Amino acid sequence: MLISGETQMIHYPGLTRGLVAVLLYHDGRRCISTALRTLIQVREGRRCTSNISRDMSALITKYTDELMRDGLVEKILG
């Protein structure tokens, strides 16, 4: 993380590499959370209209079912 912070310091003038690394870490977690939320929202039966194919919807539903079966909600809330 510190190496990533150091390489990204040019985009955050005045901040230390440690602080940049923390910002990058939290930004990455936010991106993952947003992606998971989007996947769960396009599951079969969640939305009346969706611009994805039935095959893609079935794949997303299968993937998110596995995540939920593995305790995704409990891990996120924990």
Structural write-up:
There is one protein chain. It is elongated and about 50 Å long. It is mainly α and 78 residues long. 69% of the residues lie in helices and 0% in strands. The chain has one domain. The protein contains four helices and no strands. The protein has helices spanning 2-8, 17-41, 54-69, 72-77.
Name the descriptors.
4 helices, mainly alpha, 78 residues
Assign an overall shape.
elongated
Number of strands: 0
Structural class: mainly alpha
Give the N-terminus to C-terminus distance in angstroms: 23 Å
The figure for the number of domains is 1
**How many H/I helical runs?**
4
**Approximately what portion of the residues adopt beta-strand conformation?**
under 5%
Largest β-sheet summary: none
Task: Explain briefly what this protein structure is.
It is built from four helices and no strands. It has 78 residues and is an all-alpha fold.
Q: What does the secondary structure layout of this molecule look like, with pairings?
A:
Blueprint: H1 2-8, H2 17-41, H3 54-69, H4 72-77
Helix pairs in contact: 1-2
